[in-house]
Amino acid sequence: MSHLDHFRDIVAKFTNAVESNDGKALAALFTADGVYSDGFYGEFVGQDAIAAMLRDHFWGNAEGFRWEMSNLLSDGENGFATYLFSYKSTMPEAEGKQVIFDGIAHFSFESGLIKRYEEIFNTGMALAQLDFDPKRIKKHLLKKAEQLGGA
């Protein structure tokens, strides 16, 4: 199997696990000490934490996930994809709000499993669609800027 074919297989299993709230399947794609670095919720280390993240954070705050990854590239050690991600909020302050955004995903591999997943997307766009207070959005974005060494 080529690097790209393996990456396509991993991505299909990854997005299916998220869309179907299958934390065990998602976690099984990662090394024992693998890291899922989420743009909203931060870093989750280890398979148990990754499974719990999907259950408690993703599906604890939303439903109806759709995750379409495209433009896949991989050399076997790293994989990159662009994506379109959407969901419907179940948070009390944003119940029923539909959110959609695009982003870029980076997967690092070790022995065929995901060692680290990280992403880049415009979190402010997502928060605006949830109709959060502008001060809350500003606070969030300033924190993101500070993490990058700014603000």
Mean pLDDT: 95
Neighbour order of strands in the largest sheet: 2-1-6-5-4-3
Order of helices and strands: HHEEHEEEEHH
**C-alpha-based Rg, rounded:** 16 Å
Largest sheet: 6 strands, mixed
Q: What structural class do you assign from the helix and strand content?
A: alpha+beta
Q: List low-confidence stretches.
A: none
Strand content: 35-45%
Counting DSSP E segments of at least 2 residues, the number of strands comes to 6
Number of helices: 5
Termini separation (Å)?
46 Å
Helical residue percent? 25-40%
User: Any idea what the shape is?
Assistant: globular
Characterize the structure shown:
- The chain is 39% helix and 40% strand.
- It is built from five helices and six strands, in the order ααββαββββαα.
- It has helices spanning 3-19, 23-28, 47-61, 123-129, 134-147, and strands at 30-38, 42-45, 62-74, 78-89, 98-110, 113-121.
- Strands 2-1-6-5-4-3 form a six-stranded mixed β-sheet, sandwiched between helices.
- Helix 4 packs antiparallel against helix 5.
- The longest helix is centred in the N-terminal third of the chain and has 17 residues, at 3-19.
- The mean pLDDT is 95.
